[in-house]
Amino acid sequence: MKNIRIPKSIPFAFRHLFLLVLAIIWLIPIVWLVANSFSVFPGINIRRFYPEEWTLNNYYMLLFDKTHTIAQFPLWFRNTLIVAIFTCLIASIFVLMTSYAISRTRFKGRRAIMNVGVILGLFPGFLSMIAVYFILQTFGLTNSHWGLVMVYSGGSGLGYLIAKGFLDTISETLSESARIEGATEAQIFLRVIIPLSRPIIVYTVISSFLVPWMDFIFARIILNSGLSKDWTVAIGLYNMLDRSSINTLFARFCAGGVLISIPIAILFVIMQKFYVEGITSGAVKG
Q: Where would a tag sit more exposed on the chain, N or C end, judged by fewer CB atoms within 10 A?
């Protein structure tokens, strides 16, 4: 009895069909959010997937309406952008410096420090939020955007692993040649390593920017004064879904969700090549 051979195209088609189904399931909430952001009906319409009538009024009201006390989206966007930019700068510097030190230097306890960093990275950051809150309260940094920046960037050096893996792929002969020419470690880092590390720098910058841009837990705990002018986008959009306002502000909430995704989408489109290269290169020896 002859063995029946299954054409290779059949498993290939099933795999791609499965991925297509997963992609559709993943896209349904996003499409629904975008569609409802153009809805004339201000609340949640569970009877229709697409709105009966379309309008841009939700975006206009979200950006220019000065009468509603809770809908201060431009101010929330500015607060989030300030926190994200400063966190991105500080955290990127910490990660690159830590990665370079661990990748290029050999010292007693190096392996132990690396292991501790990896172990600590396994625990979610919000487990420490109570201790972090009381520390910030002691120094008067609660209800402060600078306190948020400190929280987001303080432990960023522990995320060194992927950046270290990328730096390990850069030949050490370049550093040795620079030392022979009389360059210091700082000069080697700034003039030799950094110019060759553009992919991992892009990855680090985007990752550092995303943390404060999308975070809700720490922002909610630290910015607890109740003043809407201090909120970030995550807190502001969350409060738009309060029982008293969800029936009048849900469409604006959807519009806000679309608007906050635009900067990230643009960032990924521009830097996608370097982002992917940074991840794959850093995973080689990470």
A: N
Per-residue pLDDT of 207-229, as tens digits, reads: 888 888 988 888 888 888 777 78
User: How far apart are alpha carbons 40 and 114 in whole angstroms?
Assistant: 55
**3-class SS of residue 184:** coil
Q: How many residues does the chain have?
A: 286
Tens-digit pLDDT profile for residues 233-259: 999 888 888 877 788 888 888 999 999
Which pair of tokens denotes residue 11?
Answer: 């498993």
Determine contact, residues 236/73, Cβ cutoff 8 Å: yes
How would residue 280 be classed by pLDDT, with cut points 50, 70 and 90?
Answer: low
**Phi, psi (5° rounding) for residue 95?**
-65, -45
Pair 136, 148: CB distance under 8 Å: no
Q: Which residues contact 190 (CB under 8 A, 6 or more apart)?
A: none
Go through the domains of the chain in sequence order and give each one's CATH number: 9-61 (no CATH), 69-282 (1.10.3720.10)
Measured CA to CA, the distance from residue 22 to residue 276 in angstroms comes to 22
Contact between 55 and 117 under an 8 Å Cβ cutoff? The reply is: no
SS3 content of the chain, % helix, strand, coil (to 5): 70, 0, 25
Give me the helix-helix angle, 145-154 and 129-138, nearest 10°.
Answer: 130
pTM for the model stands at 0.82
